[in-house]
């Protein structure tokens, strides 16, 4: 592939590897902490939506997941429950909570 654009160096005889198996692209996760635009993007492409629930109330993430599932169906990718949703958060474990807080915080 050859490509030239405005915001990065041109590509000359570029090939990406590994190539999709049997012409099927790999499954992609779109991750979001705060913005609903990522939920829309994941739904538009029929990809998975991963929420990293670290900074906001759970209601925020519930709204993001609900938006993703509505838009997943809107874009013709399947029923709302067919949209792949993942969630995660950070955790710091120590012998007791006081040591964990002392070591984790700046």
UniProtKB/TrEMBL annotation:
<dbReference type="GO" id="GO:0016705">
    <property type="term" value="F:oxidoreductase activity, acting on paired donors, with incorporation or reduction of molecular oxygen"/>
</dbReference>
<dbReference type="Pfam" id="PF00296">
    <property type="entry name" value="Bac_luciferase"/>
</dbReference>
<dbReference type="InterPro" id="IPR011251">
    <property type="entry name" value="Luciferase-like_dom"/>
</dbReference>
<protein>
    <recommendedName>
        <fullName>Luciferase-like domain-containing protein</fullName>
    </recommendedName>
</protein>
<dbReference type="InterPro" id="IPR036661">
    <property type="entry name" value="Luciferase-like_sf"/>
</dbReference>
<feature type="domain" description="Luciferase-like">
    <location>
        <begin position="2"/>
        <end position="105"/>
    </location>
</feature>
């Amino acid at each position: 592939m050859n490509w030239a654009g405005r915001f990065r160096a041109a590509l000359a005889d570029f090939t990406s590897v590994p190539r999709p198996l049997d012409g099927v692209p790999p499954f992609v996760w779109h991750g979001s902490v705060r913005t609903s635009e990522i939920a829309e993007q994941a739904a538009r492409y029929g990809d998975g939506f991963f929420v990293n629930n670290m900074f906001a109330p759970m209601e925020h993430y519930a709204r993001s997941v609900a938006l993703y599932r509505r838009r997943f169906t809107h874009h013709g990718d399947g029923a709302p429950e067919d949209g792949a949703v993942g969630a995660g958060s950070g955790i710091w474990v120590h012998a007791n909570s006081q040591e964990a807080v002392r070591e984790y915080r700046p």
